[in-house]
Amino acid sequence: MTAQILLITDQPDIGRFWAYTLRQRGLVCTESSPEEQLSRRKQSPWDAAIIDLYGRDTLPVQLCKTLHSRADGPILLLWDAYDEASILKAYEAGAAEVVQRPISPLLLTVKLAAWLRRTGADLDDAESGLGRTADSGR
Questions:
Q1: Which of 4, 35, 84, 95 is most exposed by smallest CB count within 10 Å?
Q2: What is the DSSP letter of 43?
């Protein structure tokens, strides 16, 4: 079974872009809003989560705490926070990696693949599509 990615965003257009990018690389991606995730009592299974929120100060950290309490997979937080205190709070809340925006689709998928390999997630067909560059054909 291919790795399951939970994508949480408050921008539907950006969510569709990231979901398309991940699916093109062979991953199964479920899109969700932050409000939906916070109100859920039960979590659908996922191997890694990506949180990509805009203009929210405390919500990304709150989501990290919530997701971390429900599952063990890595949480990648795409965030505009540049101050050390905010970034440290995100790590303390359970983020595996805080990624500064902007980030290219290639770099995000390579980072995601690295975290999935560390956790032993099954990448099946996705492995060949993750980290593929235009130059190398990989």
A1: 84
A2: P
- Secondary-structure percent of the chain, ordered helix, strand, coil, rounded to 5: 45, 20, 40
**Structural domain spans, the chain:** 4-129
Query: In what side-by-side order are the strands of the sheet with 97-100?
Result: 28-32, 4-9, 48-52, 75-79, 97-100
User: Which CATH number, 3.40.50.1820, 1.10.460.10, 3.40.50.2300, 3.40.50.300, labels domain 4-129?
Assistant: 3.40.50.2300
- Asked whether 56 and 31 are in contact (CB, 8 A), the reply is no
Residue 97 has pLDDT above 80, yes or no: yes
The pTM assigned to this predicted structure is: 0.88
H/E run at residue 69: helix 59-70
pLDDT tens profile 18-62 = 999 999 999 999 999 999 999 987 778 899 999 999 977 889 999
